[in-house]
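INFO batch 0412 | record 1 of 1 | parsing
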Amino acid sequence: MNIERLQAQSLIEDFFTWVLNGDKAVLALIKASTGNVYFKSSQLEFDLPSLYSLIFPQQTLRYVEFKAALYGGDLNSNLMKKGARVVLGSAVNERNKIAVDVNLYYLQLNKQ
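INFO prediction complete | emitting tokens
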């Protein structure tokens, strides 16, 4: 695995950890976002292109590499240790193919 993917995985996990910890700067960044990254019923909802733009605003990582980092790592395993996980909120089916880029996901807190 290359260093960029490891760094991207770490940053993605850090982002969700900051959300879980209520980091004021990250919460303000989400609130100011014009994309599909927002809080609904106290949980974070997002689509992948919007999350990518928020975490990597300078596009220092290509979108395809962002998705590889997101899906190729241990994000949910690591988040589960913190009491949360990323789940698919709603799937959009285009011509019998799941459209990953337009699906909505959310950060779900595990029930204690």
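INFO post-check: Residues 3-109 form one domain.
INFO record closed
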